[in-house]
Each structure stands twice: as structure tokens, then as C-alpha cells.
Specification:
The structure holds 2 protein chains of 2 kinds. In chain A, 0% of the residues lie in helices and 57% in strands. Chain A is built from no helices and 11 strands. In chain A, strands 2, 4, 5, 6, 9, 10 and 11 form a 7-stranded mixed beta sheet that branches. A 4-stranded antiparallel beta sheet of chain A has the order 1-3-8-7, with no helix packed on it. The radius of gyration of chain B is 14 Å and the shape is globular. In chain B, the strands form 3 sheets. In chain B, strands 2, 5, 6, 10, 11 and 12 form a 6-stranded mixed beta sheet that branches. Chain B has a 4-stranded antiparallel beta sheet with strand order 3-9-8-7, with no helix packed on it. A two-stranded antiparallel ribbon of chain B has the order 1-4. Chain B starts with a strand and ends with a strand. The chains are: A mainly beta, B mainly beta. At the A-B interface, strand 5, strand 9 and strand 10 of A face strand 5, strand 6 and strand 10 of B.
Chain lengths: 113, 117
């Protein structure tokens, strides 16, 4: 299995909702990442997990809460989001942090209404 | 800090034309990796190539070729005989191992390539 699987593919949520994005990989990678990509912009790093511990938080607002319950799974919990948080959220994994290879999922398109 | 610059925001060509996408990078590290990714409208980032800082060999893969020149900090990507299926956004990216950039994959702004039939 050489894939990173993200669910759901599309999500519409209200500003008072709580939702979660899920990312899963079974390649034995020990680093996992969340990126946010706005339309016509490059992906921007949000969080990095290394060996299930948060190693990088790029000053992301607390309404985004990451969680890494095990080495294969990465979640992003969303609460009280704003319309400007609407974006494509990409998950990626690599063998280790600063590895020479990153595998990306197909993303979750989030719309906040 | 590290930086990737893709000066071409959009390129439009007619099928069968050759097209080169430029990428210039900045890093203080001596060990780093450079990448090219393709992002079709569906959204997924498709890995195309990786080069490490110690390997300046150019590479050809079918219609794709890459030219890495450390002297000019450039990692350019050429598509020969372009096809409509090549239409996508292409990102150049850099990953290094030093200081505050450790663990971060930095992307250029992307080049939108449109190939017309």
C-alpha cells in the first residue's frame, strides 16, 4: 500500500459545527503532515508529527486541533471555523521528518458556510 | 530560511510544443532535496521527481526532463511534445535539513500550464 488516504473528500460545515478530517497511511512512515491550500496558491504547512508527537505547529489558530492517535492515523479536528478557512486540506507522510520523499493524499475540500 | 521562486505564473502552449518551467531556490543548507509535483484539477499532488543537492545529473523520463544547476540554484523542468493531459499546476519544492527549515517542504507559487489542442 503506497497511498495516503484522506476522508472525507468534500466537507461543508457551518461556523458553529465541529468536524474532523482523517488521514491514514500504511507505509510505515513515521512523519505525517497537514497542509492547507487556498485556491491558486501553493500548499502551506500547518503541522508536523514525528513518531506520533507534534514537532511543528506553524502558528495555526487553535480552532484547528491535530491529533495523531497512532503511527498510521492523523486527524485534524475543526471547531468554530471561519469562511476564510475554506480550502483544500492535504495530508502527507514521509519515512521521517525532512525525508527525501513525501507522499500526499488527494485532499479534503472544505467549505465553511 | 528557504525560498522557492517560480517566476512563470501561467504558461499557455499548443499541443506538441516543448515547454520549460523555471524554478530557482534559496537555502543556506548544503544538504537539501528538490522536488517537482504536478497538481491536476482533482487536487492531488503527484510526485514527479526528487533530486538531492549532491546529484547534479540531469534526468530524462519519457517526455519529461530536468536540469539541475547548483551554480545558478535552478532546477528547471522541460516537457517535450506537450499534450493536453499535461495541463495542470506544477510546483517546485525544497526540503532541507537545517535550522528553522528542518522538516518543512517549501513550495514555489506554482506555474499553471495549459496545453491547447
Amino acid at each position: 500500500d503506497t497511498e495516503v488516504t484522506q476522508t472525507p473528500k468534500h466537507l461543508v460545515m457551518g461556523m458553529t459545527n465541529k468536524k474532523s478530517l482523517k488521514c491514514e497511511q500504511h507505509m510505515g512512515h513515521r512523519a505525517m503532515y497537514w497542509y492547507k491550500q487556498k485556491a491558486k496558491k501553493p500548499p502551506e504547512l500547518m503541522f508536523v508529527y514525528s513518531y506520533e508527537k507534534l514537532s511543528i505547529n506553524e502558528s495555526v489558530p487553535s480552532r484547528f486541533s491535530p491529533e495523531c492517535p497512532n503511527s498510521s492515523l492523523l486527524n485534524l479536528h475543526l471547531h468554530a471555523l471561519q469562511p476564510e478557512d475554506s480550502a483544500l486540506y492535504l495530508c502527507a507522510s514521509s519515512q521521517a521528518v525532512a525525508s527525501y520523499g513525501y507522499t500526499f493524499g488527494s485532499g479534503t475540500r472544505l467549505t465553511v458556510v | 530560511a528557504q525560498k522557492v521562486t517560480q517566476a512563470q505564473t501561467e504558461i499557455s502552449v499548443v499541443e506538441k510544443e516543448d515547454v520549460t518551467l523555471d524554478c530557482v531556490y534559496e537555502t543556506r543548507d548544503t544538504t537539501y532535496y528538490l522536488f517537482w509535483y504536478k497538481q491536476p484539477p482533482s487536487g492531488e499532488l503527484v510526485f514527479l521527481i526528487r533530486r538531492n543537492s549532491f546529484d547534479e545529473q540531469n534526468e530524462i523520463s519519457g517526455r519529461y526532463s530536468w536540469n539541475f544547476q547548483k551554480s545558478t540554484s535552478s532546477f528547471n523542468f522541460t516537457i517535450t511534445a506537450s499534450q493536453v493531459v499535461d495541463s495542470a499546476v506544477y510546483f517546485c519544492a525544497l526540503s532541507s535539513f537545517g535550522g528553522t527549515s528542518y522538516g518543512k517542504l517549501t513550495f514555489g507559487q506554482g506555474t499553471i500550464l495549459t496545453v491547447h489542442p
